[in-house]
Please model this.
Amino acid sequence: MSKLEIVGLTKAYGKKIANDHINISLNCGVYGLLGPNGAGKTTLMRQIVALTKPTSGEILYDGQKIEVLDTKYRNLLGYLPQDFDAYGNFKILEFLEYMAALKDVKDSKAKINELMSLVGLQEVKGRKIAKLSGGMKRRVGIAQALLNNPKILVLDEPTAGLDPQERNRFRNMISNLGKEAIVILSTHIISDVEQVAKEIIMIKNGRVRIKASGKELLGKMAGKVFGIRVKDEEQIAEINEKYKIVNVQRGADYTNVRFISHSKPEIVDVWKEEPMFEDVYIEYFER
Model:
């Protein structure tokens, strides 16, 4: 089984530390990478796909340093960057043929047709990439990342711009890929990782804060999530001063507040809520 080890990985840009001694071990399966903007997620992914060299530390694939493996390692990779706007003058089919040639994909015609069907591009394959919507460009990006049947698939905000039906289809596809590949999925859409990730890696200020299964993360939040029906905005402000508010739900004649507290709140008429992934995110990343 493939194994990717990240050992003491640090990346500094001058005085700014983007990644700070990251240590994680990954094998086949889907891993959700969560964190606020500027947490160091993209820097970590760029090092994993060998686009950025670490300041210190190393990455090993099946026990060998990736810089020693060099081309052999790169041939195992599939990558979708967050900003996928290059090659605008290419038509979709032309672009996938070009990328297949660069990756030396065998029987590329069949593979391209398979992927275009998979992500719903067959009917628009003659359209220029520059004229596509954001969601359509993500589909092209996903297809090119899968051309070489990668053993390590790194996806940075892959579902940005996709509609709910497309996101559901994508999640199912990623879940299947995780049976035989290491899939790293970075996203701000918590439901995308909630449903497919076997483990979630949470990063803040360049450091891994926690790496755990969804069940473990929700278990840590048990007894910490509460709800209350409030009377006015003043009461919401009072709750916000003492606790972490997750959301405020306003109905026609009511307003419910969901919030996090590490002990039973000193407020009357509160009730306990079942933890959700949104609660986990707020707990770790909101001040």
